[in-house]
Amino acid sequence: MSFPSLNSLRAFYIVGKHLSFNKAAQHLNVTSSAISKQVKRLEDILGAPLLLRDQQSIQLTPKGVLLYHQLDESFKIIENAVESFNHSNINTKLNILCAPTYANRWLIPQLLSFQQKNPRLHLTIHSHAEPEFIYDAEIRFGIKEKSRFESQLLTKESFIAVCAPELLQRAKNLADETKNFLHIAYQGGRLSIWEKWLEGSHIQIDLKHIKQSGIELYTLDQVITAAKAGMGFAVVDQRMILKELKNGSLLQFHPHQVESDYGYWLDIHPEKVGLSKLIDLTKWLQEIHVAKPSE
């Protein structure tokens, strides 16, 4: 039996990953017809059907599933072998799509330790998704795992209530200040941060007043900036305002602290799972979140 070409094996592997000839063609920058011919040639060489095709879908046959998993392991071994060449004049690129507030207030201030531990990795942090670009990993704000990605929760938000020093006295009568509550707009509504924090604070406020009033902003960074400027009162993730708490530009006006249902997730693209550079990134992110935050 003649040995199949690497191109035909790669073509089948990408089709199996996406279950689509069109997506595989886009990924490999060839035509759908070329992909179809390569897979057919592979089936002829192996003497067995690998795909079940109809007008609406593609499925792997039992032998196709077996070959796909074997190729998955093999291609990861090849990619890791290439990455293992750690010469001083070679940098491995690592592209991360990252939630802006997390990047600005938590990730970037600690990047020096990442560079010291991983000098061969050239890290690029993106704040906005580019169409058709496959990122190695994404750090996003959310409530659950991302479908088809390898997801793990890095940290959940831990909320405290803060204000600028000049508003500290007014915070004692918080029920009169609902029009000055700072809110984060999210997916057509508001994050229910204030409601969750008030549940255990023993402060009596009609929740209707919270939903119908206040100042709406679109990022946590904007809320923090507004709070520092004395625009109002905010409930924010303590980890994101360590600097402000230390220098006194924001003050915690109530001892109650509550964990959010939301947090920051690390999502690794299915084509990148198992790569050494992402293993290094994951390990470092876990370390900085386990360690006590530096103030």
Low-confidence stretches: none
**Shape, please?**
elongated
Work out the strand percent.
15-25%
Q: Could you say what the CATH topology of the largest domain is called?
A: D-Maltodextrin-Binding Protein, domain 2
Structure explained in plain terms:
The protein is α/β, with parallel strands linked by helices and 295 residues long. It folds into three domains: 6-83, Winged helix-like DNA-binding domain superfamily/Winged helix DNA-binding domain (Arc Repressor Mutant, subunit A, Orthogonal Bundle), CATH 1.10.10.10; 94-154 and 264-290, D-Maltodextrin-Binding Protein, domain 2; 156-261, D-Maltodextrin-Binding Protein, domain 2 (3-Layer(aba) Sandwich). It has eleven helices and eleven strands. A hairpin with a 2-residue loop joins strand 7 and strand 8. Helix 1 crosses helix 2 (21-28) and helix 2 crosses helix 3 (32-46). It is elongated, with a radius of gyration of 25 Å. The N and C termini lie far apart (66 Å). The mean pLDDT is 89.
What's a quick, concise take on this entry?
The chain has 295 residues and is of the alpha/beta class. It is 39% helix and 24% strand.
Task: Please specify the SSE layout and strand pairing.
Blueprint: H1 6-18, H2 21-28, H3 32-46, E1 51-53, E2 58-60, H4 62-83, E3 92-98, H5 100-107, H6 111-117, E4 121-126, E5 137-142, E6 150-163, E7 182-186, E8 189-190, H7 193-199, H8 207-212, E9 215-217, H9 220-228, E10 234-237, H10 242-247, E11 251-268, H11 276-290
Parallel strand pairs: 3-4, 3-5, 7-9
Antiparallel strand pairs: 1-2, 5-11, 6-10, 6-11, 7-8
